[in-house]
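Narrative progress, year one. The postdoctoral researcher (J.K.) led the effort to move from monomer predictions toward full complexes, under supervision of the PI. The following entry was the first complex the group processed end to end, covering 1386 residues in total.
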Amino acid sequence: MDDTLQFALAPRSVAVIGASDDPNKIGGRPIHYMLRHGFAGRILPVNPSRAKIQGIAAFASLAALPETPELAVIAVAGEAAVEAVEACAKRGVRVAVIIASGFGETGAAGRAIQQAMVTSARAHGMRLVGPNTQGIANFGNGAIANFSTMFGELPPLDGPVAICSQSGGMSQVVYGLVRNRGIGVRHVHATGNEADLTVADFAVACALDPDVRLILLYLESIAEPERLARAAAIARERDVPIVAIKAGRSASGQRAASSHTGALANEDRVVDAFLRRHGIWRARDPHALALAAEAYLKGWRPEGRRLVVISNSGASCVLAADEAEALSLPLAELAPETRAAVAAKLPGFASAANPIDITAALLQNSRLFGDVLPVLAGDPAADLFFIDIPVAGAGYDVDAFARDTAGFAQATGKPVVVAVAQESIRDVFRAAGVVAYADGTDALNALAQLASHTELMRAPAAAWPGPERVSLPEGAGGFLDEAASLAVLEARGLPVVAHRLCRSADEARAAFAAIGGPVAVKACSADVPHKSEHGLVALGVADEAAAIAAFEAQSAKLDAMRASRQGVIVAEMRRGRHEFMVGARIDPVFGPVVLVGDGGRYVEALKDFAILLPPFDAGEVLQALHGLRIAPLFGGLRGEPPMDLEALAAIAVGVGRLLRDAQGSIASIDLNPVIVGAAGEGAVIVDALVERG
Amino acid sequence: MDDTLQFALAPRSVAVIGASDDPNKIGGRPIHYMLRHGFAGRILPVNPSRAKIQGIAAFASLAALPETPELAVIAVAGEAAVEAVEACAKRGVRVAVIIASGFGETGAAGRAIQQAMVTSARAHGMRLVGPNTQGIANFGNGAIANFSTMFGELPPLDGPVAICSQSGGMSQVVYGLVRNRGIGVRHVHATGNEADLTVADFAVACALDPDVRLILLYLESIAEPERLARAAAIARERDVPIVAIKAGRSASGQRAASSHTGALANEDRVVDAFLRRHGIWRARDPHALALAAEAYLKGWRPEGRRLVVISNSGASCVLAADEAEALSLPLAELAPETRAAVAAKLPGFASAANPIDITAALLQNSRLFGDVLPVLAGDPAADLFFIDIPVAGAGYDVDAFARDTAGFAQATGKPVVVAVAQESIRDVFRAAGVVAYADGTDALNALAQLASHTELMRAPAAAWPGPERVSLPEGAGGFLDEAASLAVLEARGLPVVAHRLCRSADEARAAFAAIGGPVAVKACSADVPHKSEHGLVALGVADEAAAIAAFEAQSAKLDAMRASRQGVIVAEMRRGRHEFMVGARIDPVFGPVVLVGDGGRYVEALKDFAILLPPFDAGEVLQALHGLRIAPLFGGLRGEPPMDLEALAAIAVGVGRLLRDAQGSIASIDLNPVIVGAAGEGAVIVDALVERG
């Protein structure tokens, strides 16, 4: 564990500044909880007007404390909080939790005061949690510097789950969801405005805790992605899944986040790509965050996505088949002998094919269920099992169902989840150790998440070779003209269209002769990055005279626009199967990102592109491409040959490496179109725009 | 109520054939439930081996009954069930509920037996429910011809909800969901294989029950849409919302449905369009089916979608803003005076803008909540309110929160829903009459559904003028050639491209002269509906000689293909803003359907089209178009003018009316491309293919 964080998570002494005798006040709750959860260190209440707080000796001031506390909870507000931070830092406190609100989230003045607190803490080597935080809690040792209401509402239970959240409220919601499912929680840390320590810092500490087996995060802002990447790397190494909400997906959500904790906005699709790259599963809301907790904690890491559905309701079979298809969980093809053996157990009108419909005959014969499961356990065609018992009760041997299911899960070692709509029946299954949901859709979503997240966690990280030379022409800032842009790409071995930069009609004539018509003629000026909007592109120019006329017209037009004139490009007209785009830019938070998708005029409006974060390999590009809306066209329709996506993927990788190697000297790269030919024909960059950093 | 269904839903006497003394057996439960729920009619158990069943006099056979039962529950299986149907029909029973499985869902033999039962019932005017059904139940009078387990698990409560379901299991799941929320249920009817009576028939009966205020349906197949349309019309007239699951959305779901009840597959996107047209809200699963029940039953019918969010958690505000944006619920712009009044009540660091973040200061001052709500009640900017209290408990005045919220909802008369994660706190809100959810996402989805469904229920149905003449050339079956196809459209006043059908080189020359180059030259043969795949289309033909050459080449090619040769079309080359497609065909279940969407080669692969069911007006087409993926292009990007979508909509309406008026003589119409110009420039049908019925 990080040296400083040990004072936060396993302090020997905790001062509470603004301590209250009322266990329901902010300054009272941490003391109450530490007492209740057997905190073994020393609790040091600070309150100028009481000798005892909740039965413990209190002290009038920080100065009056008999020892220097390792951790301090600052439960006073406004100016008093600022003074307490200063006093703690001077006294040698290692970590201070600042509960008060009214700092960075309120605007420039608040941000300045917040920054001043950080400065004064840093000067003395003290770290800060908050301000505007609910605090931190470690149920492994009872160090609960946290005023959560929820810890009072639900009996505490130490366990394998860690919750790290910018929001205190959300940490409690998630705590409640997990605890209500009977799962124990070790860590609950809220970081508020994150003036210093962040969710990622606590995630690192939790990932290093050997008892933690699942980490749940709530983020409103990712300011320093490398810290989160570190947590993810440690967790992945230990096979500990991380599931995260990153709120502020929308413009209005980002505005709300900014007034909540002063959070900076992240571009949401880049967040998606970042989390994916680091094996973190992104959940939409608290319900989804906790959804698959039991399945993760069972240690299930499925090998594939092939699903078997079993139910005593035909309708549940139909709905499960629909939902499975929506979740890309194919129904497993059971072996003929499995189907025959299942059919032998069931009445004639039941369905022995997958989904397996035991039918309402189960009411007449409770053994049907236990008879069918062992037959299925042996079939290697299945990776995942879903059992839906929408209705049971009087007349059914529910205890046997639960026992049979638990035994079946044990026997297969594969994920087996159950949906049981009735709470009382569900409790019977849970008591038998079965992972049980109220809702079939939830159960299937948990299985799909488990399968997808396992794949993500196991995906090998691509490695890129060391940096290679980037040849940028002299100059600073702004766009390179097209010829210079193409030259930068060509120098890196990327396939660019055959072309010549022509400075005279004679050169244009020679270029036409060399390349052969028809050609494209395009004005080349660093001042006019978007040529087609100014009528500076002529396509399909079929003869020499037309090429020269286009040269003259475009040259004149550039002059009339008073734009710099690097010349006019005469380029080969390439045809292919489809026009794509490849883009790259430096995200202010996440660094280089690469975009690859459908090309053409409307890239921004139609947004049919994927985002990749370096390093990535061609396989990852291909996978991303198959998520595009135009993916059905790739294989070739109506007699067309398939597209050479490998060539496109190689360009995307090359562009990513180029941007990385440029180390900030390139701000963005825009290739549109990249014309992709039929398989084996390659791809070629037809239009390029490189922007200096 | 339908004359026959009164015998099903309000019978004076009910026979149970195969009656059991065991209240947990299929033949025992209906008797048990009727006794328990005070059925006032006569119960007539039929069992050859017992004198009494559950304390009531039993009879050895149907023949031995002292009176003719109006309703019979047939709880025997196989051949005995078939015989019982025959006996009931002959005895004059009015409705028989056949519980046994093993008929239409098992294949051709089972279907034949099932059909024979229908025939024998019809011969005597008896109606059938099932087979393969759980039965029907009316809690208004205790007529419970149903063996549901759930009625024994949950205390019955008559109320305003009706559940009609093909599946018995699903009827129970939905019953459980609704009842567990404290809502009473009047009707629970399951129809199984629907050999005779369908979900739609029961929906009609429920819509006519004056005490019913919400109808929930589970459908696996829609065989006779006009029955469902009738139920929808009656319900809409009475302002009774209908929410429906239609399972079998996917190919594997449709296979599972077929082995469940022998259901025929429906094309899922046409189902969507059908339900929308009839004001029925489609839910994905049982959870979604019951989701908005309380909101509907409050009678809320919101005027718009503008949302106000209030929470004591900043994170809940952020997540709600994200979810609202995803659900197209704009955050209401509160009036400056409202914001000022809210700000005056809250601490300085709280957010008085929408979302309104009361912050954790609520723990210190429980009045903040009750102070803020009345201020908001007066602002006309809001249509919907969402209050999220993710955490409360000791230290909070939860009773006051619940009371304040209930008063607020009363004062506004607008939808006010609350999310409360903690069950015990949620119960306090519910007890105060507040609509409360466990989950914020659920609460917002319920609001969005309520707003969208209200819009749908209020949308006026378009009316089309009476049929007009359709001029089809003589002949039967197959495709019309393109010239004939265009002529059919032109005769209906639809805008088709200027063109001439040329039968000689001279005619081609004359056509070129009349139309002016460049032109398109297209072979015209009823044998070759898809010309471009055979190289029978030349575009951009610029001069007369080339036009004649194309004429000759295409004529020769048609002859070489041994295809009929109606001639060669010379047509104007039209340019426009975008190429769309308009299609129409006769769905085997739903009748005429019209498709409108993005045009081009890949319509089937990319599926960017909307489906409309007649009658519809141009406004509906425009609304559907704005749901397309290419919608961001409509207004014009990068200096382009907007598109003339009105002209496209008029073509879609015209094609729909043409198909209706053709009364089966046209099977399909395929217009691709329809070139749409800039606003005011119109749209023109460039390529047309009409298929005879």
